[in-house]
Amino acid sequence: MNDDDLFRYSSGGPSSGRRGEGGTSIHITALDGITNVNSLFTLAVFLGLAWNPYDPGDGGVSVGDCAAGPRILEDLVTFHVFSFASFLFSSLIALCLKQAIRLVHPPFRPIVARINRALFRAGILASAVGSVLGCGFLMMALVNVVQIKLGRIGCTGAATMGAIIPLVTLIPSAMLIYIAVIFYALTR
């Protein structure tokens, strides 16, 4: 392992300024952000799993020829479970990275620790992939919710497509921006 593969971690102020060195309190903050956002999305997944489309008190479920079939209901649950697993994976990786940094360099000790940059980047990348997959699966689950509420795609026309088009354009656009920022951060 050479110095190019390592970076310095300091819980305090800035380091000497050489490339690869610097306070990774930014990294700790980013890892906290990942776990916080994933927690909110995991809550959304649980709320989605708790929803019963056959509850008579919950109006607005599509009926008739355009009603969602059992396959769409199965996909709804499947995508919620995949989303939950992806967000949990991402959060656990982020928490492990944060804990590894704190184990190598406890915050109450004013020394600088050396952390393997390649492993840290791989962990950040794995956590980001988990978050992106979780968002993708959650988006697909929401598409199924729309089909259950408004009718199957291609059957009802404008109502279903009007609700689905923003989902399938805005969410992937945001995920592409997130991926670009992650790759930019990993190359710096």
TrEMBL record:
Organism: Platanthera zijinensis
Residue ranges of the TM segments: 77-97, 118-143, 163-186
Keywords in alphabetical order: Membrane, Transmembrane, Transmembrane helix
Recorded superkingdom: Eukaryota
Stretches the record annotates as Disordered: 1-21
Compositional bias (Low complexity): 8-17
Protein name per Swiss-Prot or TrEMBL: Maternal effect embryo arrest 60
KW Transmembrane helix (keyword) present: yes
